[in-house]
Write a structure and sequence with these properties.
The protein is of the alpha/beta class and about 240 residues long. It has helices spanning about 45-50, 75-80, 95-105, 110-125, 140-150, 170-185, 220-225, 230-240; strands spanning about 5-15, 20-30, 35, 60-65, 65-70, 80-85, 155-160, 190-195, 205-210, 215-220. The chain has 2 domains: about 1-45 and about 55-80 and about 160-245, Rossmann fold; about 85-155, no CATH class. The protein contains 8 helices and 10 strands. The structure holds adenosine-5'-diphosphate (ADP) and magnesium ion. Magnesium ion (MG) binds near residues 44, 45, 161 and 162. It comes from Methylomonas paludis.
Amino acid sequence: MSRYALNIAELSFAYGQKKALDNVNIQVEPGECTILLGPNGAGKSTLFALITRLYDSRLGRIELCGYDVKTNSRQALAKLGVVFQQTTLDPDLSVTQNLRYHAALHGLSQKTADLRIQEELERLDMYERRHEKVRQLNGGHKRRVEIARALLHKPSLLLLDEPSVGLDVPSREVIVRHVHQLAGRQNLAVLWATHLFDEIGADDSLVVLDKGVVKAQGKLSSVLSATGTSSAGQLFSQLTQGKSS
Ligand code: ADP
Ligand code: MG
């Protein structure tokens, strides 16, 4: 069994002639929250599409808990929970109905599903609202439901694609805190794509992606000292604009 929840090796991908990812190598360990930091167009969503098998790449390898997503798709994808960039809840169904459907897709019995739904919604302070239609929820609450949904089948790796963009500050804080706690307490591996560098925690690992290339990687502190920068904001502008400070 691989020590990595996610192991990406020498991954490249192009849309026609346009290179979107160029020889990307990323490892995420259990219990580790890795921030995939990159401006719009860096290739973050493309990377997620490859991890989730929405796209296929002939160049490189992606493994989830040691299972190759190409040759062992079923086992690999069972280890994965995903919150996509765009909301993917049905607005006309209730919170519980959305979650039950997803649990059924993962083969959970109704009894197990209802227990898991309660557990995850309670943790996010959303259990009281389980009978409401998703349409009635604000953006932050929809995101909480999506995070709960992604965790129902107890994945080893949680992928979040810009989950906090467009949310107000208190809603963002709830989500940032919750996901960091999950990684720490449940030994979950997290890959969190964002272009908001203030979401990086002191203990987080960091992958800086720009124009499909990994520009820096490691714990925030070591990436800062390796690049001679003093903050994530300074690092981000130096790496993405090619400026030295
Ligand atoms: P990010 O999620 O970091 O904003 P994307 O992965 O969406 O970046 O995009 C990476 C690059 O690939 C961008 O230059 C984007 O314009 C291009 N791209 C994304 N999706 C497509 C597509 N379906 N067809 C062609 N080019 C695409
Ligand atoms: Mg994107």
